[in-house]
Design the sequence.
């Protein structure tokens, strides 16, 4: 069986990946970066007459290999032609349907954030508490508040990096598509650079205080108060 695990919710994706990986007996690990057809072939064919076919794990095969390269085509063709293999492919991001279709006999498990998460994050701006709290409460039905806070911190880290006072681009920004950068830059205009720094610091402090037990208030209530005071 070929199992492909992917999605932008990397925490849940990786937890599922570890669960599946632990079910395998002595798997062979391969890195998608620089992966060759010979490595895959030799790993899957390296068994004696009495041994079971080995299981292999490949991390970031799709993201580290362009689908138009000879190596990608040879590897995907080999996987498609061999039904009795045991392989897990894990990606630390979401893989497009076009790329997934290159391996046509795989079981695919996707772990993605709900769309209203990004609607909520993109809507965060000063003096709009009612709409933000409504979006936040709807989001809570599908996500843990701790993860929502984590994504809020990430959003403001990106906004700060893209603001007028932003320093050298952080790695997270370099991975964004131009349309994502455009949306973030537009959102950052709702805040002064100094206010962005304050908000980001407030979110970090909220996260720290909850993790260390310095606040007895439920985390969702802390987020409510944060949105009201924004």
Sequence:
């Amino acid at each position: 069986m070929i199992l492909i695990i992917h999605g932008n919710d990397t925490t849940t994706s990786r937890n599922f990946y570890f669960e599946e990986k632990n079910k395998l007996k002595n798997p062979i690990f391969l890195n998608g970066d620089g992966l060759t057809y010979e490595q895959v072939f030799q790993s899957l064919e390296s068994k004696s007459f009495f041994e079971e076919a080995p299981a292999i794990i490949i991390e970031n095969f799709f993201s580290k290999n362009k689908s138009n390269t000879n190596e990608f085509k040879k590897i995907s063709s080999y996987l498609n032609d061999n039904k009795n293999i045991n392989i897990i492919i894990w990606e630390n991001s979401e893989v497009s349907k076009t790329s997934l279709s290159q391996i046509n006999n795989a079981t695919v498990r996707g772990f993605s954030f709900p769309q209203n998460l990004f609607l909520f994050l993109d809507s965060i701006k000063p003096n709009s508490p009612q709409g933000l709290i409504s979006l936040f409460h709807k989001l809570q039905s599908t996500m843990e508040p701790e993860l929502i806070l984590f994504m809020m911190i990430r959003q403001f880290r990106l906004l700060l990096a893209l603001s007028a006072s932003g320093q050298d681009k952080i790695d997270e920004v370099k991975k964004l598509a131009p349309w994502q950068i455009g949306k973030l830059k537009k959102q950052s205009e709702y805040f002064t650079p100094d206010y962005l720094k304050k908000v980001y610091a407030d979110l970090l402090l909220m996260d720290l205080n909850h993790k260390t037990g310095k606040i007895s208030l439920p985390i969702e209530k802390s987020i409510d108060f944060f949105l009201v005071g924004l």
About this structure: Residues 193-211 form the longest helix (19 residues). The two ends are 50 Å apart (CA to CA). The chain has a mean pLDDT of 89.
